């Protein structure tokens, strides 16, 4: 498989370059940037010196289609909605890491993203690529909408309970925490080191654009349709997301039975690791890897279950899952090129 | 006022030394340690060199009472329960920064702390010193149980809603995040720099010993008696706590009216700052100071209010509030010696 | 004393606001910004909410002179060179925290700063305010050029040896490390949290604009005039500078005699603390304070002395020393309003 | 090749587990610990869950030799000196990551390490494995003394100048900075998060045990035998070392010619990357990889060259270089299993 990367100067694009460098079945043939074409890639990312021969190229779907079979769109919101139709026309498969093709209800997209939605036909064609739960449809997809970082951590953690109809969905509260690389590479006052170091912030209270994505997907596993509380914080660290989730159970349960359920559901999912009962994952334990680690506990006092899910936001939350989807599309072992042990400490 | 500090080699004790160094009305006359008596204080804390003449002394209530009027107990759980009766007998006032005198129900203390409780009479005499809400009783107290760091952030943030009976208490979820200094000065694998740096952890899931403290105090403002969900995380930073709180309202409200309520309730509280509507505090904005900063928002979609409360865990969460209580006991302006602008950035 | 602060939205200006808030003899009467006049100060710095009534004002020397006695210039390079003459004309005293008035040789200024120099008369009038070594001239100064952060750490550490003619100045190597707040408040890719966190950089190799400042001052204590090696690194922390200095001795010495010399020289300097022999300071031990802590050792194997000097770059390296100079100019105790114990941990 | 890892619960051992997990030609057959035998490996390192089937075993050379061809000693100082003779006797090859076999002069070892030296015969047999400079002798070695982290960064950076006799060795000053993982996994007050975060320390001034290692190796490329100044600092980060090196040149040079020299010398070294002139590496640019990145500049003003060398202390400074040496011993491509692009950001 030959791949092109659009938006290679962002963190998602750089992570694709890193992973695909050692992928045995997929070669990067070109990297693209709308603003920096003609510039050597290593000028953007000195850590790739001597390993990436790339010069950034401008974006022309038909030129790309001459050399590549698939494109990764690692672009900010509002770009893929315009470019993907051209890529598809040119005969390319597309894996879109942005949010542009995830929301099936175009009004919802426009309300939460405050941008014009992609054409209806493209959005309808796009398969939501939460690898563990959408394997069949990803396998044959031409366009994959790669899930957002927060929705990936959230859904992998909570879908087993939703799918089995064990929780009252209206009581679901997701308190999420992200590393700062989730904010992208553009500097700002919020991400300025002296302001973010030794600091902990909450942001976009009740307004994060991943809310409609999570709600849409929950309804695909549940009859109940209800708004949920989802809030996000910035942690002074580079990589990692933790979603701490609380929900009331329909019937009293015990931790063991829920734990068994998770182990069973994810038995054949090589990237989901269920922690032994009584222990919980921390973000560093998945650093640089494609794992999603999950811990859970049932609290008798409150009849609530707590589920804790961690990922590396740039890996399972972006580039890693994109390559996992690529592997599924190629019909090869889904761990190909991704079977790293996390970088610890 | 002449004060002695027991447990001066811990972080709470060191913070008392720092604050009282520039307090105009209270002088530290001695610092004490059970394990390091005879050693110069600066050997424990080189940052105090040339500013603290202290040599650590052993702990003898009657000797202390010869020089001091009041003792601060900045000791781990299980110490004050034994020492406070002696201190009171010797005629000393006590401000206890540990959890030993906070829980009125002795069985609850023993269940959550897994230690023997203090004598019933001492616990009953102790006034819970959440300064903003207990001013009258602190003023005349002989023994003050200084609130825990998490309960301080939580209660200052949520009590206005509880007190006005606006929320369904059974829906209250408190997702709390703390800096690592909250774990004290003893090194451990969890707090080892390479393991904690660039990491985010959850700990003591559903088992934190501050749960009974919060529940006990909530019942003092509410008729409803119900277990609440309270969970705690470690943030890779040195100081600061954020409590993110979610609760369903009994009746639909709007953000403005709730915001007005908070402004009104804390109008005369110099250390509580309500953020302008639409903005939320981050922990660094109270670093090194005695402030508790609060932001809030009402979410129509879910009929939930979210309240965000931040403090410096060593200041308003420990030594700062202890000195604030001292000021109240002395009948002087409660900001005396505490009117720092936070250290930012 | 009534003071105005120019450039109050930068970190140096914010630190002046913080310190002067609790200074008993100097009141801030106005804060100024060329770009944000008319805006409430708390909008720039929420940590000052409820403690600073200020609205940012534009900069007009004659208007300022109606209300203030002295101005602090906390401006980037190239501003004070233009504004200070006006301030002096308007009858104001000036303490300039920028580099504009420090370099007596105007060509050197223009070469290293790549900006037009201030008028010769103003530069000549300006007294270099390294408080411990320039007390007499600061006392009567109208214009003080407040030293740079790196030169302060460097000179306080090495001048005793230079002054006593103990080292070969040509062998002096200063390897300096700074926290990121030294780069100011403007965000950039270098200071973007995900790039700076868990990272250590070297920058401006052999080209830092503090080189001519250090060399100029060394010649004021030494007959030898020689270029020195001075290099700077960025540490992933918010505050603090360490200068590690190496020099060959003219004659063999021992650590004890050098240590005695330092203790003697700084005996009456309340902000310089000499560490006990065998121990060395770390930056956190001066965090938020005006101290300069110094450790040293003589290495027989190489006949080199190593001197380690640490400061808080925003305090002794900027605003703290500026206020110390203010105190000296006012003829009051130089620790007034500055006698903080460092914030530790 | 079948490998055993002794000391697998330390950071060096864990990094070997991580790398060898995806090494195509070397399989880990057992992991050993003197104190934790019988315990599942994932209990020490949850990040390896589901990827390491290992149970820690006790250390018995003859048992190990039944299953393995080579052992990695990732043990603290003082262990390998005792175990390596047994391993060699049992017919095993040894790559020792500790300092025990590096110092040829046994008195020097005992003086700097304050431990009993290994038997003379073993030390003599051990080949110092600085891969780029010792390839021939490593290829046929039975015992490899894997270089220390600081000596690796230092020697790769400075040997080209020493080897070509361009610098006055007596003027060489190495100012080194390390991440905290270099201190190992045992918690201590120095590495306690609240004390190390936002802090910068100097330690072991003039007394670091890597001094004799560096001096010994320099004399293997130089006729000049002279003590050098080498000092070490702790940076608040998890991984990475920077060595900043200063030396006076024998003759005036220019940056270009020195830069050309480095490019030429390291032309065939896949893990050494010379930065373009005018740019310098930072530690994050080699994070998680086996690279050593080098930048340099000649300063006309002082006739000094400055060389800056960065590595990941756990990779090129320990486990990565050990595997590189393994590859060389096996006669396969030296990048096998090591060709990672660094994890950035």
UniProtKB/TrEMBL annotation, chains A, B, C, D:
PROSITE patterns recorded: ARGC
Localization, UniProt: Cytoplasm
Transmembrane annotation, as ranges: none
Catalytic activity: N-acetyl-L-glutamate 5-semialdehyde + phosphate + NADP(+) = N-acetyl-L-glutamyl 5-phosphate + NADPH + H(+)
Active site, renumbered: 149
Domain of life: Bacteria
GO BP annotations listed: L-arginine biosynthetic process
Keyword Amino-acid biosynthesis: yes
Molecular-function annotations in GO: N-acetyl-gamma-glutamyl-phosphate reductase activity; NAD binding; NADP+ binding
Residue ranges constituting the Semialdehyde dehydrogenase NAD-binding domain according to the UniProt record: 2-141
Swiss-Prot/TrEMBL keywords: Amino-acid biosynthesis, Arginine biosynthesis, Cytoplasm, NADP, Oxidoreductase
First-listed, main subcellular location of the protein, grouped into a coarse class: cytoplasm
Keyword Chloroplast on entry: no
NCBIfam families recorded: argC (TIGR01850)
PANTHER family: N-ACETYL-GAMMA-GLUTAMYL-PHOSPHATE REDUCTASE, CHLOROPLASTIC-RELATED, N-ACETYL-GAMMA-GLUTAMYL-PHOSPHATE REDUCTASE, CHLOROPLASTIC-RELATED-RELATED
Its biological purpose: Catalyzes the NADPH-dependent reduction of N-acetyl-5-glutamyl phosphate to yield N-acetyl-L-glutamate 5-semialdehyde.
Alphabetical list of HAMAP family matching this protein: ArgC_type1
Protein family: Belongs to the NAGSA dehydrogenase family. Type 1 subfamily.
Protein name (record): N-acetyl-gamma-glutamyl-phosphate reductase
Species annotation: Bacillus solimangrovi
């Amino acid at each position: 498989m030959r791949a092109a990367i659009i938006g290679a100067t962002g963190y998602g694009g750089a992570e694709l370059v890193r992973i695909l460098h050692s992928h045995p079945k997929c070669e990067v043939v070109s990297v693209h940037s709308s603003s920096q074409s003609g510039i050597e890639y290593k000028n953007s990312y000195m850590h790739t010196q001597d390993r990436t021969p790339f010069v950034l190229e401008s974006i022309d779907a038909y030129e790309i289609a001459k050399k590549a079979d698939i494109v990764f769109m690692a672009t900010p919101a509002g770009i893929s909605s315009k470019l993907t139709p051209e890529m598809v026309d040119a005969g390319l498969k597309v894996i879109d890491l942005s949010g542009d093709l995830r929301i099936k209800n175009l009004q919802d997209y426009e309300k939460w993203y405050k941008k014009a939605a992609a054409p209806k036909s493209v959005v309808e064609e796009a398969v939501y690529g939460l690898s563990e739960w959408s394997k069949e449809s990803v396998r044959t997809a031409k366009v994959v909408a790669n899930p957002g970082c927060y929705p990936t951590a959230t859904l992998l953690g909570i879908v087993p309970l939703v799918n089995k109809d064990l929780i009252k969905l209206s009581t679901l509260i997701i308190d999420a925490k992200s590393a700062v690389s989730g904010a992208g590479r553009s500097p700002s006052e919020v991400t300025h080191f002296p302001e973010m170091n030794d600091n902990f912030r909450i942001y976009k209270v009740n307004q994060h654009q991943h809310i409609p994505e999570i709600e849409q997907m929950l309804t695909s596993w549940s009859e109940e349709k209800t708004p949920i509380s989802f809030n996000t914080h910035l942690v002074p660290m580079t990589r990692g997301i933790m979603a701490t989730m609380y929900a009331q159970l329909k019937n009293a349960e015990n931790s063991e039975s829920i734990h068994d359920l998770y182990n069973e559901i994810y038995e054949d999912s090589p990237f989901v690791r269920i922690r032994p009962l009584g222990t919980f994952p921390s973000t560093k334990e998945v650093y640089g890897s494609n794992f999603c680690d999950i811990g859970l506990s049932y609290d008798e006092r409150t009849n609530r279950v707590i589920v804790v899910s961690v990922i590396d936001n740039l890996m399972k939350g972006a580039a890693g899952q994109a390559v996992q989807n690529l592997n599924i599309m190629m019909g090869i072992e889904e761990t190909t090129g991704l079977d790293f042990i996390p970088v610890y400490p």
